[in-house]
Amino acid sequence: MTVEGAGQDYLTRQIGALLEAIREEGPVGEGRRSFRLAGHLAAEGGFHLGDILAATAHLLAVHAWNNGYLAAAELLTRRMREFGAESVELVQHLVRLETGSEQGWLPLADREALIDYARRVQRPDIEQRAQAIAPLLPDVSDPERPDRMASES
What we know:
Elements: H1 3-25, H2 32-45, H3 49-66, H4 70-81, H5 85-103, E1 105-107, H6 108-120, H7 124-131, E2 134-136
Parallel strand pairs: 1-2
């Protein structure tokens, strides 16, 4: 194993530990352990601290929301905003990117916004992934076939 490979393996384990901490803290936890692990991950993995903390707050908020703890979700969402507007914007776009990748399509406006964002912040990796997602065109009747217009049916 190369030194670079060992470093990547370490970061993968750290990310896994962060996700496990989020799950373990539960939907009403304050995220103390998660935020501490996120801070370590930022320092050791070269991630922007605000970005990783905003992503952690987002994941904790989603976990709370999914379990019916709306007040906790709202508190965590407010906390996420404390990590900076640019970090929040990045998290929102990454969530959109992952959702689109998983579904295989995105509404055209969302896809274009994602590509514009990637170009603006000079992230060709995000732009390439966004361009690989099929756009869901207006008036499409079948989300399984986003390239098919309703008028074609």
